[in-house]
Structures
1.
Amino acid sequence: MTYETIEYSVQGGYAELTLNRPDALNSFNTVMHAELKRALQEIEHNHDIRAMLLTGAGRAFCAGQDLSDRQVRGNAAPVDLGETLDTLYNPLVRKLRTLDIPVVCAVNGVAAGAGANIALACDIVLAARSAKFIQAFCKIGLLPDSGGTWILPRLVGQARAAALSLLGDALPADDAERLGLIYRSIDDAELMNEARRMCQDFASQPTLGFAGIKQALQASWDNDLDTQLDLERDLQQKLGRSEDYREGVAAFLEKRTPVFKGR
């Protein structure tokens, strides 16, 4: 299948998705949303894919929404941005959060607006040292969407979330790492090598266990301790019956490298 606004490939047990509108700083239009949706559906249903890498082409990761797609001209009726979120951005964020495989985001350049928050919806965010994260919404009279008002306070605290949202200042990758917004800032030349190495490693590991980790960590935001302990019990019970658990224990006892199959 060919794509116009993204690049999609599968190698070594993981999928690599590249936002590919470099002349527009990989900003979103309706075609890109449709193509991402199609690619993510394929990833979700292909059990040979055990990790995913998301990145951008050119000098930006993603500048958010292509505003020429959502411009209000003259006396035209207002654009329904709520519908845009309901039908395009929110399903994308939910899909990234709920995929049963690790999702690594390699932020190769500026990540602004929805582009920043889509990156933060991934499980592990690596960023080139030249990259910047910008909550640019306030500059055009909007609020951080695509999960921005939910994830920012949880990652960096209320005070910093408010400052990032109200000021719209660019946050360099090194500062984003220091504040706990992302996992690591990496030299530009090494970003993709490190991201691909990580995905290759994930693709050889116990996939069901990763799915359980993701589910439990995400549920912990809303659960009290008793509820979380019960969830851990239920997930551990399920994972204890998996082929990968059997193989992991056998390999440990036999002092050999395990061969996980993601089952």
2.
Amino acid sequence: MFSDTVDWDLIETHLPDMLRVVLSIMAGKISASTILRKLSTNSRKNKLFKAFHALGSAVRTGFLMEYIHSAKLRARVQGATNKSESFNAFVQWLAFGDMGVLRTNDREKLRKRIKYNHLVANCVVLYNVFEMSRILNQLAQEGHPIDPAAISGH
């Protein structure tokens, strides 16, 4: 797991080029997917790719060490993972047509179907939040006490 060492010299040598790539992406001059595709071509020979890979390894290792050390971070990651899995299960439950089974190899059709399904799921979530907020506001106006702990979701 921790067998390799980070090539800090490689990162330092290519840092100006790496920063230019990041600034170009941030400025919208090039997309991240385009730069990844260009960098990964002949990646074993591409020094800039190796420098980004080394930096990524250092960042991942730092995160992993913090994750191992911090119970609070582990709980946060677990909570976010649970939310994501819950949303995916909701999307699956909500799926319409062919029982949610995607029966095509057409990448564009698959993307559309998934995006439309996520749109429907997000609309349902938005509607529920709107209705719950409306009802809670109505109850508060009628003088009913609203306990923040009861609606916090914790």
3.
Amino acid sequence: MSLTIRILGLDPGLAHMGWGIIDVSGSRLAHVAHGVIATKAASGLGVRLMELHRELSVVIATHAPAAIAVEQAFVARDPQAALKLGHARAVALLAAAQAGLEIAEYAPNHIKKCVVGAGHAGKEQVQFMVRRLLPACGVTQADAADALAAAIAHAHSAPQRRVVVSTW
């Protein structure tokens, strides 16, 4: 009998929010599902945030994760982009809190180091390693691969924080 923990990883973004779900049983990782929630700029900020919340809430209700791993904001030089990312992250944290999920946040470099072994790895390297670690996933979208990477990082970084989903 082994414990299985379901983790939802998120790569927040206002235009594209990547999500990925894995099951963890001991040291074994298994792909469950992944996707990207897309919004249109023409809809306006409030409508876009509502769409993100609605779609993410459906993902959470459908897959019933025990924990969520959210990539922290990476702020370069564009304060407007950082603010939009902050809004999307707030929606993700709100949806997770409403569902009663354990919330963990990880820096992008930490996620890359956990998955690739190098904190400054490129998106292609992350996607390659996610496909290696989860061969059944067939992920092709970078946002979804980044979300799966966040879930993998949580599986490797926080075993003491894991919550039991089911026993098989």
